[in-house]
């Protein structure tokens, strides 16, 4: 088989894997994509607030049909273009739809569209994109927030069931820094190593570990990313099934915009000037949590009330926005202050502002701000 045919087969398999897991994820998180829900629909621009509900539903339906068609039939450039623009339009109607997996799939889709007749370009760019994902995902975890919220509470206490006495006795707290160190090291090795396939096996093991940790056999947490981790395993297998061509200026210069998007812009996220999810800030424990304290009789919010005591709300019923989103729409809210503020404004407009108090709380610094 010719080398070009092999590359085309890889791209065909890549597109079908992405279409399958994208379809699965969108069906599982269907309430993220429609307006028939309690969780607020927050468009990035105010002029999009009055878009009719049927447009959300239509775009969701079109997306499912397009993904199913891509999955079942030969790749068609015009169908991929239509799918891309329908997804971007749908995401422009509600900020919560800009999930990290959605952003990743859109990048892959656009790569394929632009380089539809250049399969080698797609494979090389996909390789660089994976390096970026793992590098910045690891970099964001180099913080005390990750050690406290994720490593200590979720991994050591909730998953392994260790006591604080045991953790302190054996000084396990700072051993959590091995996780971001390994993730960054694997990203660098994936870029420079000649044995990329062997490095991909280690990354596959990492995704299997994540699935054990948050999956149905573990914490049963954030179920919408389970298919994403499976997708990453298959993407790694496909991209590194054959040797990846070396990176050279003939590839980099015409594709400089991808390099800026994947390797330059995420740096700004470290200073709050670029979206965290566009930089693959995942499970880092960073940022504020939004709490909604409720003093009125808001029946439709009751299913999302927390049962743990919370001093912020002084004994009143309250909702943790993250838990509400994961429970109802199966997607996490974007961890951006401007979006939290828009949600706060929406909630006070929809319900009596005298019955609600919106608080942003940082568990690491223990500082709170009322919106």
TrEMBL record:
Keyword Amino-acid biosynthesis assigned: no
Organism superkingdom: Bacteria
Transmembrane stretches, start-end: 12-30, 58-86, 98-116, 122-139, 146-167, 173-192, 199-219, 225-244, 256-275
Keyword set includes Membrane: yes
Coiled coil: none
Keywords (A to Z) from UniProt: Membrane, Transmembrane, Transmembrane helix
Stated name of the protein: Vitamin K-dependent gamma-carboxylase
Organism: Chryseobacterium wanjuense
Lineage per the UniProt record: Bacteria, Pseudomonadati, Bacteroidota, Flavobacteriia, Flavobacteriales
């Amino acid at each position: 088989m010719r080398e070009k045919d092999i590359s085309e087969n890889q791209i065909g398999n890549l597109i079908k894997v992405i279409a399958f897991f994208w379809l699965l994820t969108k069906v599982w998180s269907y309430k993220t994509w429609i307006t028939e829900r309690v969780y607020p629909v927050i468009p990035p621009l105010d002029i999009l607030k009055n878009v009719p509900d049927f447009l959300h539903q239509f775009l969701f339906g079109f997306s499912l049909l397009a993904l199913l068609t891509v999955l079942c039939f030969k790749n068609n450039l015009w169908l991929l273009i239509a799918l891309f623009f329908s997804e971007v339009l749908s995401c422009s109607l509600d900020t919560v739809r800009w999930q990290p997996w959605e952003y990743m799939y859109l990048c892959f889709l656009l790569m394929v569209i632009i380089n539809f007749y250049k399969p080698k370009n797609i494979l090389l760019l996909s390789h660089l994109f994976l390096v970026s994902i793992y590098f910045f995902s690891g970099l964001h975890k180099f913080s005390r927030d990750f050690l406290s919220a994720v490593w200590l509470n979720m991994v050591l206490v909730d998953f392994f069931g260790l006591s604080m006495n045991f953790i302190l006795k054996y000084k396990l707290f700072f051993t959590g820094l091995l996780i971001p160190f390994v993730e960054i090291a694997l990203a660098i090795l994936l870029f420079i190593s000649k044995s990329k396939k062997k490095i991909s096996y280690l990354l596959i093991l990492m995704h299997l570990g994540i699935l054990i940790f948050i999956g149905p056999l573990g914490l049963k947490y954030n179920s919408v990313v389970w298919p994403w981790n499976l997708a990453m395993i298959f993407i790694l297998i496909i991209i590194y099934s054959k040797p990846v061509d070396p990176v050279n200026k003939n590839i980099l210069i015409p594709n400089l915009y991808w390099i800026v998007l994947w390797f330059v812009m995420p740096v700004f996220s470290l200073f709050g000037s670029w979206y965290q999810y566009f930089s693959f800030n995942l499970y880092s424990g960073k940022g504020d949590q939004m709490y909604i304290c409720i003093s009125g009789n808001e029946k439709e919010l009751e299913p999302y009330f927390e049962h743990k005591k919370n001093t912020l709300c002084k004994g009143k019923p309250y909702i943790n926005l993250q838990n509400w989103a994961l429970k109802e729409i199966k997607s996490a809210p974007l961890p951006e202050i401007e979006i939290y503020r828009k949600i706060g404004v929406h909630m006070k407009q929809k319900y009596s502002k005298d019955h609600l108090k919106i608080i942003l709380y940082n568990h690491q610094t223990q500082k709170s701000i009322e919106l």
